[in-house]
């Protein structure tokens, strides 16, 4: 078996990816396939943290006319639904998993405690971080960057519905050009939709590489870990 390129990773999954072609809700065929790929990483000795978005259920900006803070908190709660669904898929195949949330809900998950999260990872447990940062006006991208810095992850694996970073939306423009590698500064200056600017800046300040790839094939997670050339790498230089 090939040696993994990274020892500890932060896997960021978009909520939309969990919905697959349904467009809304959770496609458990998808969560089960993702779980199998995460199990393969654990079997290789990779320590895995994960953050899941909530675009398949609710976005903070979905609540037109609502108070933005209230809408954002609803989005945070929606991430916890996705986190529990992924936890269930993982535990069904024997992967020890913990969900830690930034908003306390002790009946269903642990509160986020950095040292406890680190200990879980060292024991080969997957740690899924729910409820974003616990603050409105911050995306789950920022939560992934923050938690990655806190757990000292080697890389953020950013799994999306597109297979990398393009100069414009490839779903709308047939002449969109894909980037193989970018610097943090290029992402910020070009206004590319990799992660939001807060998350990108946090990764830049802490020198955390971001590997953006498509989740249309869940095996891409394993390919990314083994260092195969997929997607777009965002790094210092």
From TrEMBL:
It catalyses: UMP + ATP = UDP + ADP. Coiled coil: none annotated. PANTHER family: URIDYLATE KINASE, URIDYLATE KINASE PUMPKIN, CHLOROPLASTIC. Its EC number is 2.7.4.22. The keyword Magnesium does not apply. Homohexamer. Keywords: ATP-binding, Cytoplasm, Kinase, Nucleotide-binding, Pyrimidine biosynthesis, Transferase. Catalyzes the reversible phosphorylation of UMP to UDP. UMP binds at residues 72, 133-140. It is an enzyme of class 2 (transferase). It is found in: Cytoplasm. Pathway: Pyrimidine metabolism; CTP biosynthesis via de novo pathway; UDP from UMP (UMPK route): step 1/1. GO terms for molecular function: ATP binding; UMP kinase activity. Residues 7-213 form the Aspartate/glutamate/uridylate kinase domain. Pfam families: AA_kinase (PF00696). GO terms for cellular component: cytoplasm. This is Uridylate kinase. Its main location: cytoplasm. Belongs to the UMP kinase family. Inhibited by UTP. One of its GO terms (biological process) is UDP biosynthetic process. ATP binds at residues 12-15, 55, 59, 166, 169. InterPro entries: AceGlu_kinase-like_sf, Asp/Glu/Uridylate_kinase, Uridylate_kinase, Uridylate_kinase_bac.
């Amino acid at each position: 078996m090939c040696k993994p390129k990274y020892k500890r990773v932060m896997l960021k999954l978009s909520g939309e990816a969990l919905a697959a072609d349904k467009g809304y809700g959770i496609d458990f065929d998808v969560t089960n396939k993702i779980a199998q790929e995460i199990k393969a990483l654990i079997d290789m000795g990779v320590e895995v943290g994960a953050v899941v978005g909530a675009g398949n259920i609710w976005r903070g900006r979905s609540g037109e006319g609502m108070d933005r803070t209230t809408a954002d908190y609803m989005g945070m709660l929606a991430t916890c639904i996705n986190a529990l669904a992924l936890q269930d898929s993982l535990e069904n195949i024997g992967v020890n998993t913990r969900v830690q949330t930034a908003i306390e809900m002790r009946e269903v998950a642990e509160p986020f405690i950095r040292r406890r999260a680190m200990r879980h990872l060292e024991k080969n447990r997957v740690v899924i971080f729910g409820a974003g940062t616990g603050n409105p006006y911050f995306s789950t991208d920022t939560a992934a960057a923050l938690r990655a810095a806190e757990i000292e992850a080697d890389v953020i694996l950013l799994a999306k519905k597109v297979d990398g970073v393009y100069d414009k939306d490839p779903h709308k423009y047939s002449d969109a050009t894909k980037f193989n590698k970018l610097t943090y500064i290029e992402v910020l200056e070009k206004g590319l939709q990799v992660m939001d600017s807060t998350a990108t800046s946090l990764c830049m300040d802490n020198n955390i590489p971001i590997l953006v790839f498509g989740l249309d094939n869940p095996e891409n997670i394993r390919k990314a870990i083994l260092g195969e050339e997929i997607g777009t790498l965002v790094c210092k230089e």
